[in-house]
Amino acid sequence: MENVFFKDIESVAQMLKVQEVSPIDLTKKLLERIQSINPVLNAYITLMSKDALEQATVLEKELKEGIIRGPLHGIPIALKDIFETKGSVTTSGSRIFENFISQKDAEIVKLLKKAGAIIIGKANLHEFAMGATTENPHYGPSRNPWNILKIPGGSSGGSAVAVAAGMAFAAIGTDTGGSIRLPSALCGVVGLKPTYDLISTDGCTPLSKSLDHIGPMTRTVADSRILLQVMADAKKLERVDLSIRLKDLKGVKVAICKDYFFEGIYEEIAIHIHQALAKLENLGAEIIEVDIVGIQEALQAQKIIFKAEAYAFHESMFMDKSHLYGEDIQFRLQAGKDVLASEYIQAKQYQQAFQQHIEHKMQAEQIDVFFSPTNIIPPFDIGSVGPEESVNNIFRLGKTPLGNLLGLPILSVPCGFTSERLPIGFQIMGRMFEEGKVLAIGEVYEQSEGWVSYLERNEVYQIEKTM
To answer: Which residues are the active-site residues?
Structure first.
């Protein structure tokens, strides 16, 4: 049973199907593992033990009757604690909502349960998803399982930790500036930000409605595909071809833009990123360099939209209960208060123009995907960056925010480790609703390198040395 915690969803589903393991036993053993490890890693805010075992009991009975709801039947999944779960607390990582009991399930929770997933717990996050480190002043920081002194990234840090440390077979996060992709890269797992609005945000505490995305954080690319198919809006999913599989990358055109995307990158990380790019080329991809006009203006637009929309949601709560927010969130919301309506409108107009520019660029150059680093520096020590400086962490740590302004599908894939054994990831961005192609390209790379088996062989993390 010990080895099962690092297996992919397809493998565990097969074990469940042939009754090599039962949903109840799997859930019990996973809960025991979480109870043992979570006090150190702090991946979870709430462990839903009773609900999870009740779900497992129903699913086990169905399995014995030959009923299989879907590819997640009996698979324990973690949720970022920003999604409503009926009858349970949804804190959004804040004291403001510490006693908020949801009266309904978020849309994605309904879909996950319908497909047979077991909701094992609610994962820790940066308060209100408004930061890149998951240093939560109310529920404590989540810790990177590769080095517990380091941040795991954010805001979906607890979700990434849960998957990387074998405390969930997958997790669902949100991504407004890179909050799925960045912690996935820093913790050595796969993170997918789908096309904007492909997955419904109903029942998810908003951060910035124009930029918010929901997506899976998994052990393999194939697992991300499974979860996307389960969670996506059925009508919109008709535009996505998830049947695409590639033997190699012949005929695939990969673009890089060295301006901005490769700026500020640590030399050691750059070596691994360029090795990954060379591997794509060796697998048959054509690599081209392109220029992108207006990146700095686009980043500024992204910041304005984020600040204005975040403040719009929090305004009444912030006016009444500002003292309950963490210091770094107070800085962010105060900045949003000062955004002018004209600035916001101009930023939205620029967003549309920039989207059209990139779409035209990809069509004209026949680009399949853009390639760039996910993280450009290693994770820094927990507590080493002050609240007033943390607003820029997402821009310091990686090259993810532009993807939210564009709303295009982006996959982050592990591609190596620093000399201190800290994970590195790269991201590939495709055209609107071309998740199938993006996943297929990522899968070809993943299978050529074997990072998944590396994770499975290295079950002993820093945290287990401290216990």
So the answer is: 80, 155, 179
